[in-house]
Design a protein that fits this description.
By secondary structure, this protein is α+β, with helices and mostly antiparallel strands. It has helices spanning 59-63, 86-99, 107-120, 193-197, 200-208, 254-265, 277-285, 323-335; strands at 4-5, 30-37, 40-48, 66-68, 71-75, 81-84, 132-141, 154-163, 171-175, 213-215, 227-228, 231-237, 240-244, 269-273, 290-296, 300-309, 312-315, 346-348. The radius of gyration is 21 Å and the shape is globular. The site of pyridoxal-5'-phosphate has 12 residues, from strand 12 and helix 6.
Length: 349
């Protein structure tokens, strides 16, 4: 599929200090947009970043028929630009779209749009360590109609924003046992807008209690650890990397999957299984050294300092020799080309 590239009249701006930018607030100069109408994708183009003109009746605005992805491009040691695990993000995007009854974007359109946009806005690639270009592909139902139905018209778009890692200090989290993010058979495995809107209220309550985030538990009994905010949760206990298995209600995180592979290859024992709140509590009370961290594209590896279970707060191990920092370094080294990409995870623009 061919598309036109309209280049902004503004001189390209270059970001020098990503650390001082609020995450996701500053878009790059351009965006990609394609329209879905009459059963096909049309009018794909790259334009200057601008507001959208959509109907107030747009189905996506009322009924949450929206899906998004989040990935990152990195400046490599040799000066090239790497979009990390683009294929895996594309596959998850397709799964989310299927779950929300939205049309898939053809792989070649997705890849070409990503490549062209990142290339065009490459002046926005931060060069500093721990910084990257955050890429947000997303789709919204634009058909204008107040009626609960599957839309027939959509916009697929990609926007980018230079980013430093999302969390800059170790996190205090609370195991959530009243509210739920997702239930069996729900949309927890899809990256759809409603999952996030529904999480705001319990997260806000946790913030008021002094926490940064909640750790979700299973909706049925609130006994099993699920994930946290926009991160999968991982633990390092007794030389073993442990993470909740993909249950059908948590997101199949790309960072999670990458870290598990990296750990296995480094000879670290890995367990993907049910992790119960009771088991964690018992281990903390027995004085076991526990590392806990969130893993996600935006957060990368976010150390957790405090986990509250009920009315008790437990401290996790966050000293400099913790295994999670080694895992983070291994992931970062791979993404910037410091170590070989044996899995073909890097897409060089
Ligand atoms: C709910 C949720 N869980 C986990 C993750 C981590 O996934 P990934 O590593 O693919 O960014 C994200 C972020 O996308 C998320 O939104």
């Amino acid at each position: 599929m061919e598309f036109n590239i309209a280049i902004t009249a503004l001189p390209e701006r270059v970001v020098t200090d990503t650390r001082s930018l609020p995450f996701g607030k500053v878009p790059t100069d351009h965006m990609f947009i394609a329209e879905y109408k009459d059963g096909k994708w049309t009018d794909a183009r790259i334009t200057p970043f601008q507001d959208l003109n959509i109907s107030p009746l747009a189905i996506g605005l009322h009924y949450g028929q929206t899906v998004f992805e989040g990935m990152k491009a990195f400046s490599m040691e040799d000066g090239k630009i790497n979009i990390f695990r683009m294929q895996k993000h594309y596959e998850r995007f397709c799964k989310s779209l299927d779950r929300m009854c939205m049309p898939r974007v053809p792989q070649n359109l997705f890849n070409e749009a990503m490549h062209q946009l990142v290339h065009l806005d490459s002046g926005w690639m931060p060069g500093e360590a721990e910084s990257s270009l955050y890429i947000r592909p997303f789709m919204i139902a634009t058909e204008g109609r107040i009626g609960v139905k599957i839309a027939e018209e959509y916009l697929f778009m990609i926007v980018c924003s230079p980013a430093y890692q999302y969390y800059t200090a170790p996190l205090k989290v609370k195991v959530e046992t009243t509210y739920s993010r997702a239930a069996d058979g729900g949309t927890g495995t899809a990256k759809c807008g409603g999952n996030y809107g529904g999480a705001f209220y319990p997260t806000q309550l946790a913030r008021e209690q002094g926490f940064d985030q909640v750790i979700w538990t299973d909706a049925r009994n609130h006994e099993l650890i699920e994930e946290s905010g926009t991160m999968n949760v991982m633990f390092y206990i007794n030389d073993t990397l442990i993470t909740p298995a993909l249950s059908g209600s948590i997101l199949d995180g790309v960072t999670r999957s990458s870290l598990l592979d990296i750990a296995r290859e480094a000879g670290i024992k890995v367990e993907e299984r049910q992790v119960s709140v009771a088991e964690l509590k018992e281990a903390f009370e027995a004085g076991t050294r526990i590392e806990a961290f969130g893993a996600g594209t935006a957060a990368v590896v976010a150390p957790i300092e405090i986990i509250a279970i009920g009315d008790k707060s437990y401290s996790c191990y966050i000293q400099a020799d913790a295994a999670m920092y080694r895992l983070k370094t291994m992931l970062n080294d791979l993404r910037i080309g410091k170590t070989p990409d044996n899995h073909s995870w890097n897409y060089i623009v």
